[in-house]
Description:
alpha/beta; 32% helix; 31 strands; globular
Amino acid sequence: xxxxxxxxxxxxxxxxxxxxxxxxxxxxxxxxxxxxxxxxxxxxxxxxxxxxxxxxxxxxxxxxxxxxxxxxxxxxxxxxxxxxxxxxxxxxxxxxxxxxxxxxxxxxxxxxxxxxxxxxxxxxxxxxxxxxxxxxxxxxxxxxxxxxxxxxxxxxxxxxxxxxxxxxxxxxxxxxxxxxxxxxxxxxxxxxxxxxxxxxxxxxxxxxxxxxxxxxxxxxxxxxxxxxxxxxxxxxxxxxxxxxxxxxxxxxxxxxxxxxxxxxxxxxxxxxxxxxxxxxxxxxxxxxxxxxxxxxxxxxxxxxxxxxxxxxxxxxxxxxxxxxxxxxxxxxxxxxxxxxxxxxxxxxxxxxxxxxxxxxxxxxxxxxxxxxxxxxxxxxxxxxxxxxxxxxxxxxxxxxxxxxxxxxxxxxxxxxxxxxxxxxxxxxxxxxxxxxxxxxxxxxxxxxxxxxxxxxxxxxxxxxxxxxxxxxxxxxxxxxxxxxxxxxxxxxxxxxxxxxxxxxxxxxxxxxxxxxxxxxxxxxxxxxxxxxxxxxxxxxxxxxxxxxxxxxxxxxxxxxxxxxxxxxxxxxxxxxxxxxxxxxxxxxxxxxxxxxxxxxxxxxxxxxxxxxxxxxxxxxxxxxxxx
Length: 627
């Protein structure tokens, strides 16, 4: 044991600080200096320089809790290495942002908002179809990044959000759907280019301490849902130090005085993680061109990916934010062009509660108002980004992935001198464009909400309180939106799909369409689907249709009940003629009913599988299902 202490003392002496004069002001630390390795001494010195003496004031004499003291520096080392610029930068950024917050400084002072330029797409028209084709062609040159650091607590679900069923007709979870969608894009892209080279699309998942082990377990126990394990890269984000007061004094953990309290920093960390991982340079060497970022529980997202990637490619956007039409004052951030009095411009997301006052303060007396389209001219940001890799790397070389931060302290009173509880700096993935030069091509792609956006984030109680006409963004609305989108897509492709009925689940009034769902390899683009819907097919409102296979076509199918079709890729299956059975009925479930699983309770319904027709085609060749 003595040799380790001697080595530490030698490290301190080598730094010329054996006397520890710099630590005079903090006797508890000075008494323990000889325990520290040279890098720990440097960290201690840095903390004192940054006004963090309180972290050591309770330290006892050497020989008491020495292991815990070393453990403290292990944590400081981690916090220092995981933040761009280290803890010095974090503390200094915090002091500035806390001072601005106390002074009530408006982050948009000096900026005038205007409507940015972008592309508004109409589902199914010729332009949409050609953009989808352009996007599929580009997909082999892309990498996908999923930010999945959150648990489902806000939803009333204890697991990780990506493990939640996207819909309960098949029970496939969000992560399975995302992986199958990427694999379908990969295959279609390579086939379209037709050079015989099978590119693998990289897939990065950003996890957190809360989700890392469970995400890996979900992947491993399901054989990565068909993706090669080498394609998937897990990047775990670290938390950041909590701040106790306006002087940015780091907060100690209430339960452990040798630990700094930490909280999540936000999904903006994804940029610094990608930068430090070396993956971006690797992708550049592989001649990849695009990085697509998406969040964990939007079950409709991949309906929008091919056409949006087509927009990026044809317009040459360095940054393309996916957006949906939003009603004025709807609780979703608006994509806005901001022009500063000094000439700077940026195209970024402005939160809905800041957009209206900003417009009113800059000569728009009606604030955020609907225009002649019936929607706000500021499209709704859905936090899905497509970045061009080359300019992205150049920008990150300057910033090291640091993203513009904000702080949101909860003060005890109007003097703003004390916090109710510790706070921390936060950052958001979509604030990346804030540091871009004016020459950067920043645009957006607007899609129909029904096609592209149905996030699952609110628990049943909160969703039931949403004002009538506004989106619930719950497990109930997220699942019913998938059936609605698939029904409308098939209707556009020429099938007769019955109108929905309106029902209420967990206090939320939703449209119940036929429960239609398909695997991504069946319907990746609208052109794919249109080619597989022929003849005069019809599906009744009480029906459910599950299509699992590539070459399955609807040719005069008359469905009234439940039909599940599974086919190997080499089987060509025609669904034709009437199929009638008692089907699956929808049962209401109360979210307080603990006899049901959480995953069902948060939806407010379950299926009673009374009768169904399930057919499996395991042999290649032509097959026909007909009555």
